[in-house]
Each structure stands twice: as C-alpha cells, then as structure tokens.
Amino acid sequence: MEGEFHMITWTPTVKDYNAKLRRLEQNADFAKNDDNVWFRGITDPWVPQYSMDDFNAHFQRDNGGAFAPTSEIMSKVKNRPNSEADQAAYRWRDRMGSEGIDLSHGVTTTKVYTDGDPKLPITVYTPQMSDPDEELGAIVAYHGGGWIGGNVLVNQNFCRYMAEQAHMRVFNVDFRLAPEYPAMAGFDDCYAALNWIVDNAGDLHVDLNTVAVYGDSAGGTTAAAVAYQDRKDGHNYVTHQFMAYPCLTLDHDVAEKIDWPASKYHFNSVTKERYDNDQLFVGKGMDTLRQVYVGSQNVDDPRISPIEIPDDIMAKMPQALIAIDEFDPLRPQGYLYAKNLAKAGVNSHSMCYYGMSHAFLDKFGIFAQGQHFADTAATWLHQGLTGQTK
Questions:
Q1: Are 141 and 155 spatial neighbours (Cβ–Cβ below 8 Å)?
Q2: Do 193 and 171 form a contact (C-beta atoms < 8 A)?
Q3: Where in the chain are the domains?
Q4: Phi/psi at 353 (nearest 5 deg)?
Q5: What SS3 string covers the chain?
Q6: Angstrom distance (rounded) from CA 306 to CA 324
Q7: Between the chain's N and C termini, which has fewer beta carbons within 10 Å?
Q8: Using one digit for the tens of pLDDT, what is the confidence trace for 353-385?
Q9: Would you tell me the crossing angle of helices 368-382 and 14-25 to the nearest 10 degrees?
Q10: Handedness of CA 287, 290, 295, 300 (dihedral sign)
C-alpha cells in the first residue's frame, strides 16, 4: 500500500531545510507565563511577522494534492451510510493528508494485531539497537483526520523519527472512522489499544515506566481523551501526553466562546485563504462532525470534548507538551488545554509555531518545524524541559 501513492512535488533543498531548522533552534527557551504554562514561541526570523512561513506558502502553491489511502481497518467496510452529511464527510476524507519524508535511519517497521473485536492493526516502529528484545518506553500514536479520515501512512514518518530520536517503540494505531463507525467506536479502539499494549508489555518488549500517548489534530484530542479515561479508570498507565493542534470541544456553543474571530489572526491574503480552507473544525464542518461522528452521543462527554474533563481528574492528568500553530482555527483550543492543565497543577508545556497552518506535521521532512517539534518531544520524554520534573 505504501508504494501506491507518490504525492510530493515540491521539497526544499537539503541546504535550505537544514538552515531553517538551525534558525528555529535558536528561539528562546520555554518560560512560564501568567497562565503558569511553560510557553515557547517558535519563529523563523527570516519570515516577517504575521506572514506564512515561506516553505508553507511554497507548498500551498505547488503540492501533489491529498494523500488519502484507505486504511486497513476501513478497507473491510462493505456498506457505507449515505446521507448528505455522510457524503460531505467522505469528501473531506478524500481531501485530507499529505505525504511527508522519512528522516529516520535504521528504524524497523512491523505490524501486530490486538486480540479484541475488532482486531486492531498496529504498526510498530522500533529503533536500531544491539539487543532487539531490549525493553523500551512506548509511544502510542493516534493519527489525525477529524475522526472521519486520516491514516497511519500519513503520520508514519513522524512516528519513525520519534522512535529513533526518543529511542522508544512507537505503536501507530489504525482505528475505525465515522461515519461508518460513529463515536464511541474510534475512541474505544484507541483506548483498547493502549490497554492491550500494556497487558502485553512483556511480549512487546515495553518498559512501562514511560508510556506516552500522542496525536495530531483529532488524534491529539483522542490522546487527551485516552489519558483522561486512563486516569478515570484508575490505571495510571500513561506517563506523558503530547500532541499537536488538538480540538478541545465539538460543542458549538462552547467552541464559539473559545475560538477567535478571524480579525485576531492578522491575516494577509495568503494566510486568509489557507485559514478559510481549514474549516473542518468550525462552521459547517463542525456541524458535519457533530452529525456523523458525535451522532447520538453526549457532545459534552470528555472523551469527545476534553475541555469537559472534571477538575478532580484534570489534576491527575499526565504532564503535557502541546504544539499549536499561528494560522489555525484550533490554535486557541490547543492553548486552552495547556492552560487548563497548568491551572490544575499539571506540568504543562506549549509551543506556538508562527507562520504555520493546521496539519503542518503531515508534511514531516518538508517543513522543518515538524522535525523541531519531534526533537523537542524526544528531549521532553527523557531529559525533561524547563520546569519539568521526572
């Protein structure tokens, strides 16, 4: 399946990419702000304020289109619901994703299956090591796609690189999607995968002293929800949660109170056009998600809307690292999650990537910001960042 899709048409030169990465690395360190969040702004000083990053702008003009292969678990679906909202969801699914570049070296890829119903495919990335049976910490990864799309092939290059840089085993979970499987099917899959990995830690050579959940976009929401359920059930398996641009709520009224008006983003014509294309989590897109994903479930359930995590459980949540980006409808929601965790006494780090737009990690290896975030996360998982205690 991996060889069937080749969507990349533009990439920066290696020289330009490495130069940008070095400039990103020169930003000031984390500092605690008035919200008790350890915050760090990441910008390329060569890019003017309130402007789209030059690599990002170039990619918008010259790219190969969506990278949306059918996932293994969804390939088994025979009958699809076909309401007007369902059809809108399928159109979103077909437009999602980008193909990135593999920056890892010596990482092996295998596949395992859970023993539940359904048997979930999990792709495992293992770093190069002298003893293949060495126990390593685990990262359980959930791909983005608004719970209606996405694929483990889209985030695979980020996962491979994390396996190498963090020297951990990364478990990339293939889970069921709406509208074929509305909530809570996808969440149940993701939570079951965490528990199956823990239960089979010996066979999987996992060191349970470090178990992180990770996700981007809707996958970030799922990572937060899995950490919540882990704490609610009293398991306390999850030691770290890290994510990029998560959605915090699917409640329309709550979102209206959190989200920014477009005027607050300082858009120019280029950034405004890109923002207008990121409408899955606002406006009509949000309505579609509520219909096809939330369905009859309670939208205020913390497993759907983590902003609703009660205070007593929020105080028990694992430490967090949350990346947000400048021209993103979910920017205020991601930061609010970091703020809520800090308010509850949880060690919370957040980074804002200026000049970037939603789903920039899909272009891993093309946008240096993705590698920068992965490098930061790897350090955070093992050595800690400013203000972090292990």
A1: yes
A2: yes
A3: 2-382
A4: -95, 100
A5: CHHHCCCCCCCCCHHHHHHHHHHHHCCCCCEECCCCCEEEEECCCCCCCCCCCHHHHHHHHCCCCCCCCCCCCHHHCCCCCCCHHHHHHHHHHHHCCCCCCCCCCCCEEEEEECCCCCCCEEEEEECCCCCCCCCEEEEEEECCCCCCCCCCCCCHHHHHHHHHHHCCEEEEECCCCCCCCCCCHHHHHHHHHHHHHHHCHHHHCEEEEEEEEEEECHHHHHHHHHHHHHHHCCCCCCCEEEEECCCCCCCHHHHHHHCCCHHHHCCCHHHHHHHHCCCCCCHHHHHHHHHHHHCCCCCCCCCCCHHHCCHHHHCCCCEEEEEEEEECCCHHHHHHHHHHHHHCCCCEEEEEEEEEECCHHHHECCEHHHHHHHHHHHHHHHCCCCCCCC
A6: 16
A7: C
A8: 999 999 999 999 999 999 999 999 999 999 877
A9: 50
A10: negative
CA distances (Å), 230 to each of 191, 209, 225, 280, 314, in order?
A: 8, 15, 8, 28, 12
pLDDT, average across residues 288-307: 96
The CATH-assigned architecture of domain 2-382 is 3-Layer(aba) Sandwich (3.40)
Reply yes or no on whether the pLDDT at 3 is more than 60: no
Distance of alpha carbon 71 from alpha carbon 152, whole angstroms: 7
Dihedral (Cα; 211, 215, 220, 225), 10-degree rounding: -40
pLDDT tens, residue by residue, 18-68:
999 999 999 999 999 999 999 999 999 999 999 999 999 999 888 878 999
Residues 69, 327: Cα–Cα separation, whole Å:
27
